[in-house]
Amino acid sequence: MKIDEISSPELRRSQDDLHNQLCSQIESSIKDIEKHVPGTALPDSFSTDLRRIISQLNCLSPFPNSVKLHIWKLSYRLWNACVDISNAAGVKTKHDEEHAKLRQVSADLLFLASDVSGIPSPAFKSASFFYKAGLIWHDLRKFELANYCFEKASDLLSKVDITNISEYEEKKLLLDLNIARSRTAWEVSDRNLAIALLSRSRNVLFAVAENYKALANQYLMFGKAMLSKNEVSGVNEALRLMNDALELCERGLTVVKRTEQTLALKELRSKTLRFLAASHLQRDEFESVLKCVKILRDSEKDQHPSLSVLAMKAWLGLGRYGEAEKELRGMVSDKGIPEGVWVSAVESYFQVVGAAGAAAVKGVFLGLLGRCHVSADAAIRVVNKVIGDPAGAGEEARLRAKVVSDLVSDDRILTLLSGEDASKERTAMHALLWNCAAEHFRSKDLQTSADIFEKSILYVPSDIESRNLRAKGFRVLCLCYMGLSQLDRAQEYINEAEKLEPNIACAFLKFKIYLQKNECDGAITQVQAMPSCLDFTTEFLSLAAHEAIACRCLPVAVASLSLLLNFYSTGKQMPTTEVVVFRTLVTILSQDPQNDSGILKQMKRAHTRLCEMGTESFFGKGEIGRRERNWFSVNAWNSGVKTGQENQYAICAEFFRLASEFYGASIDEEKEGNHVMVCKSLIMTVSAIISDEKQRTNALLENEVKEAITLLDRAGKMLMSSSTEYDKLEAIIEPSFLFVYTWCAFDLHLRLDDTGSQQLLLIKRFANSKYCNPKHLLQIGIDASEGPHSNHEVAIFALSTCLSTLLALPSPDYVSVALILRKLVSLRSIHGVDTNDDATMETYKQAYRIMVGLKEGEYPVEEAKWLAMTAWNRAAVPVRMGHMDEAKRWMSMGLELAKKVPGMQTYRSCMEDFVEGFEKKLSGA
Predict the structure, then answer these.
(1) pLDDT of residue 541
(2) Which of 95, 187, 231, 827 has its CA 20 to 30 A from that of 809?
(3) Is the pTM here over 0.85, yes or no?
């Protein structure tokens, strides 16, 4: 408001009335503030209204002294109201911005009357208000407002002649104001101004001990702040500031004489020296650190705890580990050193010295245990520092672990962490040791790992709640000792774990121990016990099989997989498909050539599941299913071939029958599966059945014969459905299988009374095919001529046809020819002399014709002798019967044959003599 407005006719007020009115408004606002409820927020209307009134008052200056006195009182009243509100709110409540604004309003109001008469040192009082308001703004981190207040106070005091100041508070204010401005400048990173203000403060110390202490302390605070930044330039600056602080302490001690003030400066001086030592330590100026420590030790009766730490670190930096260890051990006897200090010292020492200092650290720590203030937390910190990084492995890590093992197993440590109030620390120690042992385990250092795992169990309570944790520790110890091949000890631990927490993990580890001991029976028993565990899953049986295979303990693998197969029908989730388990099981069994019965058992089991599940559900679909089907088919076939070669015809027949079933399984759009192999398998099945009968010399029962015929008929239907002409079957099946089929059909049908003619037709059909060879006919002829179900018609036909075929060859096999002739003679002789003599004679004549023209010995001599002798002997019956012509005919045949046999000259002479005598006798008669 302007003066011309005040004096205008419209307002009609005098200047004094306006002063009084504005002061009344200020007083009214102050009253409202005085009525404000402490603890509630101050409305911003107070400071806004007061700021507006002060602006109006400022336009009306200069004021008469009476108005100034009134303003002065109002300012103090407002200030006191703010103080009351702040005190009533409690010491924990910080000043808010509205409160700071009212403080600054009070200072601005007092500034309007700062030249009032009748009040001593008004400028100092006004500056004090601004200083205190600035401190509040500084606490609220409103540094611009704080600086404004400090500068207003500095302006007020700049006009004061400091040589005339005698009051302590006024001397103190000059220094505090400079320090406060310096702190604010430091906060806004104006360090040059901050240091300059501190330097300016040296001029207002007034030989007051408190001033020296305050200024030196501020230098120290700035130095500590610079030191904490860990910058090279910052450390240098910190060192300079701390030297300034030390200088001020020294100057203060020369000026101040009162004992209590001297003690305060000495304490600050010692503190500064300690921080100086810390600054030198950061700069690796170890000699300077030791000098500071020496000064402090020489000047102080009660040594500060940090001196030993500083000295130890300096000795470590100089590489004098013996001196560092002395400092460390000296801390043990000093009960005044706090726990945190010596724990930090132990950590620092071990960090530099490493594993070489582990034993010293152990000795120091155990010595410290005798001190009453050692806590469980300190023990954990020390153990953690000694452990370091166990992942590094190597000799150092093992040495550290050895020290840790000795340390944590000490009775004093165990006692320290045994109380109920140390449960948290005990858990932390267990976790620390467990993690350390786990790292060594991963590094394959199993001995160290086992040692630390054992010590970790010492920190697990023996109550029910911790039994699972103890069991876990025993299980991992079992693993360690298994890796160390100390199987008996591993078994002890897993037995203890099973007592605490019986589960599948314990069962499986016991199984592995049996395997490593090569105790197959024990391993199998353990496998069979696994399903009884509550947390059992079928994956463990699969894993057990893999472990057994790796240990070459095949019976255990077989037992595991056999047991695993029992769970496929239960609907449980399985680790792999059932067909894969069967395939694996058969593969394992095949590694032992004596396991044919076991392979057959599993093959039958697989076939049963195939019938239950269906082809595609068991083998799988598409190409995968075909591969699985073919694998089982081929293995069944190969096992049949193998057992057949070993004359195990009963098992052989079973394998070939399974092969026919597997080959016949259809995948996807296949209609008949591999019908050719089905046909072959059926033929081989029947052949094995007949061979087994001959081997056992026990005739097949009628139902067994019919079953075999049924199998053979299936094969026959496949052959006939594939080709209507017998001679076209070679494209489908090998001739050897046609022979086996024919031979088996003939053999089986021989056993039926009414099928003789059918067998002859069957053999004639086979003999007329181009795939028939003499050996096949010879075999059929011999079989048809022998046994209880012989068929002489088939035998004679087969042998005669075989003989004709052999003689048609360029180089006949005369051994076989001789055998056939003997068989034909025998067959024709057995079935009646009267009806077969001519045929028998024809057989002998045929033999004679065959021998004519052969080289000596080309026809088997013994067989030729047999023919000659049997032909001669056949004359005996006709002689006795009086049929002389018939007798003469047989004698002539025998004599003619004998003439073709080398070595029968004597017999031939005798024969000739007998014939000559026989003829004379006949003629005489």
Answers:
(1) 92
(2) 827
(3) no
